[in-house]
């Protein structure tokens, strides 16, 4: 599953009992024994024992728990099942991946319409998009402060804040979107 950045251990607590977490190589575990999977260094802090109100959260939990039946084998590294996109959009994303089309991350090319407004709907999956639409955020000087981007999706506002000097943490119930954000941030 991979290592985890110590930053998480110093800042995260169990969302249920608020106790500190330890890392055992595959999960973060609370003092009460509640487990949260870590996928490729990313902690998945969604509550598996609670009914989820959106499908991407349930899909992210199942994928993080290692549910092989849920993994879309056409492009497993893109976490298609947790992106919240249509079957047709998944098919286009797979085409972008397999044919190595486009200059931006294939998942972002499909998520861009949902996160950048209807003005971008016409370019969903368009391989000719040359760059990421990252807005310039108007914020006070960072002075090294941290910013929490809740519902970050592929990270456009997180990247904008980071460019303004903030140390940013992005949260999203979509494991696929968080992984896309990490790829774009690199």
Give the count of structural domains. 3
Beta percentage is: 5-15%
- Could you state the order of secondary-structure elements as H and E? HEEEEHHHEHEH
Please identify the oligomeric state: single chain
Q: Return residue spans where pLDDT drops below 50 for at least 5 consecutive residues.
A: none
Count the helices. How many? 6
Report helical residue fraction.
Answer: 25-40%
Roughly what is the average pLDDT, rounded to an integer?
90
Q: What is the SS-derived class?
A: alpha+beta
Q: What characteristic shape results from the CA principal axes?
A: globular
Distance from first to last alpha carbon = 19 Å
Provide the spatial order of strands within the biggest beta sheet: 1-2-3-4
- CA radius of gyration is 17 Å
Q: How many beta-strand runs?
A: 6
Largest sheet, in brief, is: 4 strands, antiparallel
General description of the model:
The protein is 31% helix and 13% strand. The protein folds into 3 domains: 6-64, no CATH class; 76-123, no CATH class; 146-185, no CATH class. The protein has 6 helices and 6 strands. The model has no long low-confidence stretch (mean pLDDT 90). The longest helix is centred in the middle third of the chain and has 12 residues, at 87-98. It is α+β, with helices and mostly antiparallel strands. 31% of the residues are buried. It has helices spanning 6-11, 55-64, 87-98, 106-116, 156-163, 175-185, and strands at 21-23, 27-30, 35-39, 42-43, 146-150, 167-171. The strands form 2 sheets. The protein has a 4-stranded antiparallel beta sheet, with no helix packed on it. The chain is globular.
């Amino acid at each position: 599953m991979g290592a985890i950045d110590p930053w998480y251990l110093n800042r995260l607590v169990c969302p249920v009992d608020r106790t500190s977490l330890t890392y055992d190589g595959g999960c973060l575990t609370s003092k009460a024994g509640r487990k949260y999977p870590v996928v490729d260094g990313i902690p998945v802090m969604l509550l598996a024992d609670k009914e989820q109100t959106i499908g991407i959260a349930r899909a992210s939990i199942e994928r993080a728990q290692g549910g092989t039946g849920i993994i879309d084998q056409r492009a497993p590294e893109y976490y298609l099942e947790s992106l919240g996109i249509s079957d047709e959009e998944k098919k286009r994303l797979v085409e972008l991946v397999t044919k190595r089309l486009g200059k931006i991350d294939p998942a972002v090319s499909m998520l861009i319409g949902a996160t950048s407004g209807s003005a971008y709907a016409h370019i969903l999956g368009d391989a000719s998009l040359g760059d990421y639409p990252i807005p310039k955020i108007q914020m006070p000087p960072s002075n090294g402060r941290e910013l929490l981007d809740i519902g970050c999706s592929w990270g456009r506002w997180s990247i904008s804040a980071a460019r303004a000097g903030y140390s940013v943490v992005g949260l999203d119930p979509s494991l696929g979107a968080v992984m896309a954000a990490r790829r774009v941030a690199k």
